Input
Amino acid sequence: MHLDLPHLTYSGPPIDDAETLGRVPEPLRGALTRRNGCIAFRGGFHVRGACREPAWHSLREAWDGPMAFHELYEEVLDSDVPFAEDALGDQFLLRGEEVWHLWAETGEIERKALTLEAFMGEVFADATEALALEPVLAFLDAGQELKPGQLLMAYPPFCVSQSDDGVTLTAISTQERREFLATIARQIHDLPDGAEVQFRIEG
Output
């Protein structure tokens, strides 16, 4: 497997976290050895690397750090490898050989592909479908830029019916987006479908 993906806006630094790399299963380990993660599709797909800095690119931070996904979401196991994310902050996890998709707004997870190779095959075949690139393409078409270390904030969140009337897309830091998504997921975790929710924006 390789990470020779199109429209790169970032390529990871040299590997400086051999311990984390050693915990990563093949074929991801081999791919990271050749390219230590990247951001492709002009910000639409981020594969993390075996590095300590920058923190937003560090697989160690996402896997074991204070904001690790298994700490933020009940459905994520500490053995799940959070190897990649899309532009909105949804996560792709390696659970054994399978790739699972974490819907970060709701905390729901579902199996995406039986193997990492199959998942990457879907990405290469039709990235727009596999990675739901429509929001980032709309953002870019509007003349905006998604920089490394940023994700898209969609408001209102896609998980509420108000988003059917359209959303506002803004580039914010990866950490801000991760905290926002985890907060929403916690607040709506036990709500039934169709429940009314009210969001308050502070600051």
Summary: The chain has one domain: 10-188. The longest strand covers residues 81-86. The chain has a mean pLDDT of 91. Strands lie at 10-11, 38-40, 45-47, 81-86, 91-95, 98-103, 108-113, 150-155, 168-173.
